[in-house]
Amino acid sequence: MGSGRLYAAVTAGGFRRYATYRAATAAGVFTNTVFGLILVYVYLALWDERPHLGGYDQAQAVTYVWLGQAFLSTLALGGGGVEGELMERIRSGDIAVDLYRPADLQAWWLAADMGRALFQLLGRGVVPFAFGALVFPVALPGDVLTWVAFLVAVVLAMVVSFGIRFLVALSAFWLMDGTGAAQAAWFLGYFCSGMLLPLNAFPGALGEVVRALPWSSMLQAPADVLLGEAGALPTYAFQAGWAVVLLAAGRLVQTAATRRVVVQGG
Amino acid sequence: MTGVDTAFIEVDRVEKVFEVRRKTGLLKRERRQVRAVDALSFTVARGEMVGYIGPNGAGKSTTIKMLTGILTPSGGRLRVAGIDPSRERTRLAHRIGVVFGQRTTLWWDLPLIDSYRLMHRMYRIPDARYRENLDRCVELLELDGLLDVPVRQLSLGQRMRGDIAAALLHDPEVLYLDEPTIGLDVVSKARVRGFLRELNAERGTTVLLTTHDLQDIEQLCSRVMVIDHGRLMYDGPLAGLHEAGESERTLVVDLERELPPIEVPAPARVVRVQGPRQWVAFPASQSAAPLVARIAAVCPLVDLSVREPDIEAVIAKMYAEKATA
Ligand SMILES: Nc1ncnc2c1ncn2[C@@H]1O[C@H](COP(=O)(O)OP(=O)(O)OP(=O)(O)O)[C@@H](O)[C@H]1O
Ligand SMILES: [Mg+2]
Fold first, then answer.
1. Is A72 strand, coil or helix?
2. CB of B245 within 8 A of CB of B238?
3. Percentage of chain A lying above the pLDDT 70 cut
4. How far apart are CA B261 and CA A37, in angstroms?
5. Distance (Å, rounded) from C-alpha B312 to C-alpha B320?
6. Residue A264 CB neighbours (<10 A)
7. Cα B325 to the center of its chain, rounded Å
8. Ligand 1 pocket: which residues have CB below 6 Å?
9. In the 8-state DSSP scheme, what is residue A122?
10. Which end of chain B is least crowded, N or C, by CB within 10 Å?
């Protein structure tokens, strides 16, 4: 209640912080659109060769591409989330400031990242998606209920995404320079979330594995809800399960980090 | 007075040892221990304003971090307002204010006021209290007109004042300041000092202040603690520090022309001659007046000034003496 208002304020602040960088947002929209275009033509060619790859028809595949572009910055799949800032604060010792406050580190950064993600979704996601939907044949649901179900899955995807990135960021307490860990995580996330190819299209055992990993909560899960390929409730259960596991792991690591690890710098 | 009031901050044989790993060869790593704070003991009573000084790497920031609870001591006992900081960091957080001069609590990209609104929620400050404290800080720290400016656009001095205000909105009982005047110009320093003096006098806030600026201490603190290599070297009034350190002031005299070193009565002595300018060192505890009169009587004097002893030099000298003793 009392802390609810605090974290709501942090979310609002996170949103507004990113909103101040208009030029970066415009550049991001442009990049996402261009990327989307390239990927759409690749997909169209691929689906011409292999119709119904991963159970998608061509319109669904195109929709998937534009969803991916809309989520790229929202879910910080290529970096750009709060983890970079958090790692830098750990490295420089500015984390000290976060630690002597009567606020929970994880909740604080989750709130800040949700604000960021919401801004990125509206500021950077909607335009490329709308562009794609207008220019290409897409498969969008007609009923409001599916859209609502989709948005819930998006919010859960944001939480899972944060859960992973928070863990990566905390590694900086031990590694000092977390850049390598972050880059590995981005690479893994990009691949395992299905940004390159829908996870449904991954063959055999590899497919089974990636679809069970937390990254599949991020793009694949909401996409399948929107495209009518998966039921909302099982999807939520899968996402929420990973969210709980990741946040709990983050909490454990946070406790260990703040207990035995040293705050840097004078 | 109750026990908590006389020993509001209680540091009893506290130690902090850092493990440092260093690469010594291709694969070899050497483990080394740095004793940042070593058997440190002191108490601070409620309402005191104490200066905490020492050379670089002495252990000041480490002490403050332990007092806020963000570092756990390796040994000894620590209490602030009866609370063990590292155990109950969050509970203590409501009662302390912290300013690290080199860091900021403010939200970099957003207007100053947004950070204050956040403090309002974070510390659950009652609305009326929040408004009153904010108005007061805005007035005394001259933050008028800065509230809507994004923090990244503030100058260093403005940001520091902004940070001090942020640390005080929740009426902390004790305020830790780690180099709050670092990098500030004379005007900003004066403003910050004036504010702290008033805070201590009117609200009775206990203040522990680290600095490399002797004037901060002179103008604010009746008591000073000197630390070096993690050990407390001195604890008492500032005047006593000069005696303890046998520090010297310097009289810089400009003569009409080049002359041999002036003959001055011991323990004063000429330490340097450069053209018509001469430097005369004399004990800090002694008045400069008789010396000036004496020099004026025997030499053609054009100008003179007195240089106060440099705190770092005083401490360095103190430490050197203890080490050889
Ligand atoms: N995270 C750390 N890891 C290893 N050693 C550290 C760490 N933090 C501080 N030290 C060491 O502890 C000692 C005390 O450092 P501290 O920052 O407390 O000094 P200080 O008195 O604040 O100095 P300054 O005036 O330069 O700010 C130094 O020798 C420093 O190298
Ligand atoms: Mg320091």
1. helix
2. no
3. 97
4. 85
5. 12
6. 16
7. 28
8. A 262, 264, 266; B 18, 20, 34, 36, 54, 56-62
9. I
10. C
- Phi, psi angle pair for B64, to nearest 5°: -65, -40
Residue B31's φ and ψ, nearest 5 degrees, are -95, 130
The pTM of the full predicted model, rounded to 2 decimals, is 0.85
Q: Which residues contact B115 (CB under 8 A, 6 or more apart)?
A: B105, B106, B107, B151, B162, B166
Single out the residue of B313, B170, B295 nearest to residue B242, CA to CA: B313
Q: Tell me A199's DSSP state.
A: G
Integer Cα distance of A126 and B247 in angstroms: 69
Chain B contact for A1, CB < 8 A? no
The reply to whether A262 touches chain B by the CB within 8 Å rule is yes
> Cβ distance B78 to B87 under 8 Å?
no
Please count the other Cβ atoms lying within 10 Å of the Cβ belonging to residue A203.
Answer: 8
Which ligand is in closest contact with the Cα of B67?
A: 1
Cα Rg for chain B, rounded, in angstroms?
23
Q: Are A242 and A249 in contact (CB under 8 A)?
A: no
A116-130, B4-18, B63-77, B281-295: the lowest-pLDDT one = B281-295
What are the residue boundaries of the structural domains of chain A, listed by start?
2-258
The single residue listed with the structure tokens 């005007």 is B187
Beta bridge partners of B10: B43, B79
Q: What is the CA radius of gyration of chain A?
A: 19
Residue type, A132: G
The number of residues making up chain A comes to: 266
Helix axes A179-192, A82-92, angle to 10 degrees: 160
Write the ipTM: 0.84
Q: Give the residue carrying structure tokens 């449904």.
A: A200
Q: Which of B14, B19, B31, B34 to mutate to test the pocket of ligand 1 (most atoms within 8 A of CB)?
A: B34
Which residues face B272 on adjacent strands? Answer: B279
The count of residues in chain B is: 325
- What CA–CA distance (Å, rounded) separates B116 from B121? 9
Sorting pLDDT into bands at 50, 70 and 90, what band is A114?
A: very high
DSSP string covering B131-182: HHHHHHHHHHTT-TTTTTSBGGGS-HHHHHHHHHHHHHTT--SEEEEESTTT
CA A253, A254, A260, A266 dihedral sign is positive
